[in-house]
Write a structure and sequence with these properties.
7 strands, alpha/beta, single chain, 5-stranded mixed beta sheet
Length: about 220
């Protein structure tokens, strides 16, 4: 077999590149229409999260989130979970503490089919003050946004942030090879970034959770 043919056979399925409004993305997540892997573990500190938010506010280009669209209106995040949670946290003004992140982790384990429970639990988390602190950007002392929360921003900046169009790449449902497609895409992304052991472990957890998701979908 020639090299060209081998390359063609090894090609990944092609996702569709487009954009999504930031507010639309966050509303979908809050209402259970977008799901993170059950094994997702948020690990960004306040400084890294703040730098990401500042880059969005100031219009810097950001890497696209990679999503998988399965059953109607159910979207699974392949890559971009930290960005999603960080945007959600800043927009709601809540920097979730360890207990709060634990509560969100439990929501991630709720089946995609039970969007009502996912939304109900998220609303509960958002109304429990002991689960979060106020999200204020922690940047360098002379940074124009240092110490700002979402509500501290000028109205024009809040509007710009809320209406921001975020780049995404969407892979459409392929039920027969669903878990294989997602794992191949995730592997390619992380190998390109330099896969570390924690991400290899995450990859295996995602694979196991997707196998379970596919079995549940068939019932």
């Amino acid at each position: 077999m020639g090299l060209e043919k081998k390359i063609k056979e090894a090609m990944l399925p092609q996702g569709v590149s487009k954009t999504i409004g930031l507010r639309e993305l966050l509303v979908d997540y809050k209402e259970g229409g977008i799901a993170l892997p059950p094994s997702f573990d948020y690990s960004w500190g306040i400084e890294q999260a703040s730098n990401f938010i500042a880059s969005v506010i100031l219009g810097a280009p950001i890497a696209p989130m990679v999503l998988y669209e399965g059953r109607p209106k159910k979207i699974f995040v392949i890559d971009g979970g930290h960005r999603l949670i960080t945007l959600f946290s800043f927009y709601t003004g809540k920097w979730f503490n360890e207990q709060g992140l634990g509560a969100i982790a439990q929501i991630n384990k709720t089946p995609l089919s039970n969007s009502y429970k996912r939304e109900t639990e998220m609303r509960r988390v958002l109304t429990q003050p002991d689960l979060y602190d106020e999200f204020k950007l922690r940047l360098t002392p002379n940074h124009v946004l240092n110490g700002s929360g979402f509500l501290d921003l000028p109205d024009s900046t809040k509007h710009y942030f809320s209406k921001s169009e975020l780049p995404i790449c969407v892979f459409v449902s392929c039920p027969a090879k669903e878990s294989e497609v997602i794992i191949e895409v995730f592997s390619a992304i992380k190998l390109g970034e330099g896969l570390v052991k924690t991400e290899i472990d995450q990859l295996m957890k995602i694979k196991n959770s997707l196998v379970g998701l596919g079995q549940a979908r068939e019932k």
